[in-house]
Structures
1.
Amino acid sequence: MISVRDVSITYKTTFEKAPPSFRKSVVRMGRGSRNIRLVEAVRNVSFEVYPGQTLGLIGRNGAGKSTLVRAIAGILPPTKGEIETRGRMGTLLALGVGFNREISGRDNVILGGLANGYTRDEIEAKYQEIADWSELGDFLEMPMRTYSSGMFGRLAFSVAVHLDPDILLVDEALSAGDAAFREKAQAKMENVAKNAGAMVLVSHGLGIVREMCDYVVWLEQGEVMMAGDPTDVIIAYEENQGVTETTITREDI
Amino acid sequence: MAAGTSTPDVAGAPSDPFGGVSTISKPYRAGVPPLVPYFKELWARRQFAREMARSTMRASYADTLLGRVWDLLNPVFTGMIFYLLVAVISGGLKEADFFAWLMSGLFVFTFVSTAMTDGVKSIVQAGGIILNTPFPKALLPLSNIWIELQRFLLSMIILFGICLWAGITPSVAWFVAIPWIVIITLFAIGCSMMMACAQVYFRDAGQLIPYILRLWLYACPILWLPMKETQFLTYTNPLYCVILGFDEIIIKGQVPSLATTGAALAWTLAVFIFGVWVFMSRERDFAIRI
Ligand SMILES: Nc1ncnc2c1ncn2[C@@H]1O[C@H](COP(=O)(O)OP(=O)(O)OP(=O)(O)O)[C@@H](O)[C@H]1O
Ligand SMILES: [Mg+2]
């Protein structure tokens, strides 16, 4: 179960529009101020996801979807509000594995599992299944810098779904996959969702969102623009975006 | 979930804040997370720190011909260069046991200084990991320390060789080196966590470090022997007694004096506790500042 109650998240980032000039730096130092920019990525968002349900998060680039998912995963603390989760988390954030691009896929799988709190034995036991499902074959022994983005996605997805999560967070993981992989991944996600898991799916592929989700939240500049039945929200979103229902938006590109 | 964000709210539920049964994530306030669950979590993931260290090390030597032999060669080369420097400055080669003195101090200093230079990078350059995986961030500087400790222990083999060559006879007091290495390691952990945290808030820290380290090297009894003029450094330089004690054990074959041991212990505990405290009380804030 995931419960997001009135959550706002603000990034504090040091950011310079132009490369810092020497004079500006001295002036700034004199004032004792540093250039901290606040980015309000998520504002007053609330929703609940119950076991067996799948929530879709849609919105334009930079709307705050990834930020919200990171907060649910417990990575970013909310600036305001609170988030409650029950169950073991499986996170599949954009490029979730890939600790070290210099080491092999296999080592990355183990490292990723250990970071997520699984024991070595648990991961070793699952490894064969993960490897087979990803269909990467010999590439698993190669450094991850030699992987294509789709191969990256395959491995990340395979790890996330095979570690038996109660809550599955999927952010943009399918975008680089080929048709065969996407079909397989969708079946797998439906399976996880059926096994009483709660799932949050972030995707620009509106087709898959409509098919899989019970409930859709549309974020716009960090705020909930609309929430409710997938078909209604997606139609409104498409109209807002100025694209009408075409095969292009239906197929995940 | 991130440490301290989360309090198990089901009575009797396993308190595994990172993968666990029930967690509530609340706004960040500067403050130390509950210590027992935090350290439990950290301990549970010690394998991760080790694996991380192993893969970092493997990656850093990936394309070199000599691979891990560099772990042995690096300290030897550095030692010889400093020995030459001292010989040039003082106008003549010094005795063999001065070389041993220089090397033993230098090895300790290198442990601490690499802990700081790697520590500075450990959080800020970890970027992707921190934004995509919930885990206790302390594992990142700790995995660096694990690498440095291994290198330090390897350099002890060289030091042993140098001692034999310099005519220093092995002594029973050398066993005291074992608890002393624990002290050095705690000191390094404290420094590394302090720098890791400092870099998140002030990106200037990384620029300053090389100068601080060089100055610090000159302020330690490594390139020179303690004399009257340097006495003021004994208790004001945090690393002074840590290095001096190690030298006394290895070179003189003595158990360090009470004053030296006391000062080394006091500074180490201060540095360790302060470093771990600032790190832990701030680590939840790291993710939104990267
Ligand atoms: N590490 C960061 N530091 C500062 N600001 C950030 C950071 N990450 C994201 N942002 C900002 O937060 C806002 C939301 O970003 P987020 O990544 O959540 O968008 P998104 O909805 O996932 O977009 P996309 O569809 O492109 O993946 C954006 O304005 C972005 O610039
Ligand atoms: Mg995103």
Note: The domain at 2-251 of chain A is CATH 3.40.50.300 (Rossmann fold).
2.
Amino acid sequence: MAKISLKICCGMNCLAHGGQELLDLVEDSPTYTAYVELACVECLNTCGDRGYNSPVVELNGKIYSNMTAEKLMELLDQLIQTNNN
Amino acid sequence: MPLPSLNIFEKMRGLYTPVINIRRHVLSEVGRMVVEGRPPHYIEEIPYRVIPKSTPTYRESVFKERAIVRERVRLAFGMDLKEYGAHGPIHDDEVVECMKPIKILKRPIVNVIKIGCERCPEESYWVTNLCRGCIAHPCVTVCPKNAVSIQNGRSVINQDLCIQCGRCAQVCPYNAIAFRERPCASACGVNAIGSDEEGYAKINYEKCVSCGLCIVSCPFGAIAEKSEIAQIISSLKAGKRVYAEIAPAFVNQFGPLVTPPKIVASLKKMGFKDVVEVAAGADRVVLQEAHELIELIKKRKSYRIETSKKKNQNLPDNLESNLNIDSKEVEDSVIDSTVNKTFVGTSCCTSWTLAAEKNFPEITAANISESFAPMVEAAKIIKEKDHEAVVVFIGPCIAKKEECFIPKVAEVVDYVMTFEELAAVFQAFHIDPTKVPPDNDLQDASSLGRGFSVAGGVAAAVIKQTKKMLEADITIPHVSVDTLKECMALLKKVKQNRLDPAPLLVEGMACPYGCIGGPGTLAPLNRAKRAAQKYAKEAIHEYPSDFSSAESDT
Ligand code: SF4
Ligand code: SF4
């Protein structure tokens, strides 16, 4: 089974607006680390000039902006469930 | 099984909350305004950029949300707060003043934004909905003041009688009685936060030591500190010879991709002439404190040997002769105040030294090390090389802004900015450190100096250095504590001589886990700690004294 690919933007805007906390969320959870291929990447250039779309993540090739821990968990849980079925 | 409860500092740690979100957007907007050289009235636009929606997100109305942001903007520019209730447009002149490359910061650094404060009740015990009005009602029985009674089938606490002993909460079979804390006050280790007549949080500045921990603990974001980013950016833009000194806690603050050489490169790209590690100053502090410690040990030699014998330790034969080493340096650094010295108190944490002086003047005056904080020592290194240097301290610390009001410190350190503020300045300059080609690695400091950022690191460094200088493996009784509450409790014990063995070295840190837990940090604690320890190991020299010997070798 292919792992879920999750790229978290670690550019300055995203980092200042919660990117690092998202990294922690996935890294510190054994459930997620088992299913997710986590990468910390350079600026994805989608946060907007002023960073109001930060933080940005790329999940299985799709870009999501204004990511929060709650939203990310929901998305990951959904993907893990469909993968398991 | 319930999880163990967390203390106030651990509760919101590592979470990116909307409070932080607003704070950071305000900082980066203010930074941008200065970088882009906008006209003064642009300041009125910032609240609308930060709170763009017409429906409220956080509070009862957008007007209130924007009014609070407006106060934050004032503070971010370094201005004073407006009195609550007073009519206060921001005058253009005021803004122009703030955008000049001149220091304007005034006390107080830490401010309660009154309109943002939700007047949380002061600490008290409350009966929650879990109360079942049970027949046994042990809460009533155990209360020593008869403050608890059963009314309408539920337990009620008479707050006028309650002395907050907590017995009722302890015995309730349903855990129905809760201790209600006021986050800002629980975070304050020196009890500086009370209430005004209307119930708003009010800081008693006689007691406050500007540690900044109430700022990060208030869940409503009602406390904020003044910032100097506007003046720092102006200095950079004016082409002044600005130098950065960066505190050892900086590693990994800007994410795993941003290595120290990249931070150096980004700072230089922004206009900083050069970057120096504050840990180089820490090295000087280690040496000075080690000298002071040796002086103290010499004086208490007989005591030391006695206590060690009691513990059956094998003392090295050469100890006596080593203790009598008559190096000139030692003599030079010995200060008269050693007369009453009973221990060496570390000097690097401003809040700790301030709190110690304010609360235990009788024991601290003679005992806190004469050395200046690493920030000052590192700034001296810069000023020795370039007299016109404008020195900006970059660290996790808010109290350093307070320290700069001390005249001797003000001579060498011009501005202070936190890592959080630096991130906003990077954003304002459109610099992304991940994409900047790395500069040279920093190698200004030893492992021990770099270890200052984690609680316990200072004492460990001083002891290692002392042992090396004495060439003897002796036990030196010492204690290290973090958080001001613990620090104050410790000083009380020291004062009453309740510690056995009496410590010769006392390290105090105001922030939980040391500087890496400071209020101006960006990185989650566990990450910061791992990175800081790794970084310390990467120093070429282990001991501060290695530098001088390396120099004399060449
Ligand atoms: S925690 Fe915040 S909102 Fe509550 S009293 Fe303190 S400053 Fe006010
Ligand atoms: S001492 Fe620290 S926690 Fe207490 S009021 Fe001052 S800044 Fe806030």
Note: Residues 278-299 of chain B form the longest helix (22 residues).
